[in-house]
Structure formats: structure tokens, C-alpha cells
Amino acid sequence: MQLLDAQQVIKSQELIERLDASESTIRRDLQELEDEGLLERVHGGAKRIIQLGQEYNMQEKSIKNIQEKKKIAKYAASLLREGDIIYLDAGTTTYEMIPYLPTFELKVITNSVDHAVALTERGIDTIVLGGALKASTRAILGSSALEQLANYRFNKTFLGMNAAHLEFGYSTPDPEEAVLKRLASEHAAETFFLVDASKINNVSFTKVAAIDSGTLITTTLAPALHQAYIEKTKLKEIE
């Protein structure tokens, strides 16, 4: 799948050569991945399926690529400095930052009910935005949240993303969430996009920001992807 992430379309012969596998093995593996809805077989190879509007709920997200998310979250938390005022976006990767947040003076603004509870349990100074609650992700959205957010400025903003793409940038399925994420990024001195490698070179429904709008923190990429992204944006890969 990493090869498909990098190229979107790949030939069976290339897979045979690069993976040192037989034609029958490659054919069987492609069939299994197609059955799982991860790719579409085409003449002589396969192409990646891009599902623009798909969004998992919090429980489903919380068990996907959890070790990668924890690695990204731990590094992101290490970037904080005493006295920082930060925006912590709703999402499972940003949620994983909370156990790693330092104990020095810090103020966190969030649009997540779950984040707010976990932050206050750790004794961290927390402001939770008010507005409409989205049941599937427990994120607070809408005009009230936007109006409140417009009055704040941040040293750092940390955003989870459904997809990152060289041309389309960072994107998410929900237009309301996209607007809030965009504003939080625009009001920050620095923005960090937390995106595990499974979401790289994917596209979701609504664009949030250009790929060079901040630092991309991700897990280890295939060499071709690494080179492509490092030429376009600030990149930090976590092994």
C-alpha cells in the first residue's frame, strides 16, 4: 500500500520486481486488497481508491494506527514551551498528545469535549469552545465556535487531518470542521499537521490548507514520498 500511496497507480510487474514475489502471489494479494476496498484492480496493475467523504467515528478512529499516532503525539508534545497558548484540534492523534503534555504553565484551547475532560483531569488550564456538538467525533462546530475562535491567537496550533496531498493540501470530510481548522491555523504563529503515513497522498472532501501551511509530522514514508514532500513543506518523520 505504501507504493500505491506514493504513485496512486502501480503495475503488477513493478510489484513483482520490487517485492521479489511471484506473479500468482501478487495477483492474490491485489485481489485481497480489492476485496477490502483498499484498491481497484486495473489492466496490468492496480490503483488506489480515494474515498472523499468517508469519516470514521471516534471509537473507530481510536483503534486505527494507534502506535503511529502515539509516536506522532509524543513528538508533537515535546515542541511545547513554558507559557505557550496552543490550540488542540479534536481528533484521536491530538488526543494522544494529552498524556505527554508537560507540567509547566500552559493554556490549551480545544473544540473537543473529550480533550477538555482529559486536559482538566491533568490540571491543565483549558478553554473549550462553545457551539454545536457533532455526535460522531464529539467535536464542537458551528458559528458560535467560529466567533469565539476568531478572538484568540496561539503560539502553536496542532491539527489532525484525514488526508495530506502534495497538490490538494490538507483535507477533511466535514466542511464545518475544515473552516474551524483553517481559522485555528491562520491564528497561530506555527501550525503542526499530525498525519500518520496511511493518510499521506490521500484526498478528502474539503480542503483545509495548502501543503506548505505548516510542519507535517508523520511516520516513516516510502523514499519516493519522503523526497516529494520534503521538497514542498517542512517535514518531520517519526520512526
From TrEMBL:
Coiled-coil boundaries: 16-69
Keywords: Coiled coil, Transcription, Transcription regulation
Signal peptide boundaries: none
Pfam families linked: DeoRC, HTH_DeoR
Transmembrane annotation, as ranges: none
InterPro entries registered for this protein in UniProt: Carb_Metab_HTH_regulators (IPR050313), DeoR-like_C (IPR014036), DeoR_HTH (IPR001034), NagB/RpiA_transferase-like (IPR037171), WH-like_DNA-bd_sf (IPR036388), WH_DNA-bd_sf (IPR036390)
Highest taxon of source: Bacteria
Protein name per the record: DeoR family transcriptional regulator
Organism of derivation: Enterococcus canis
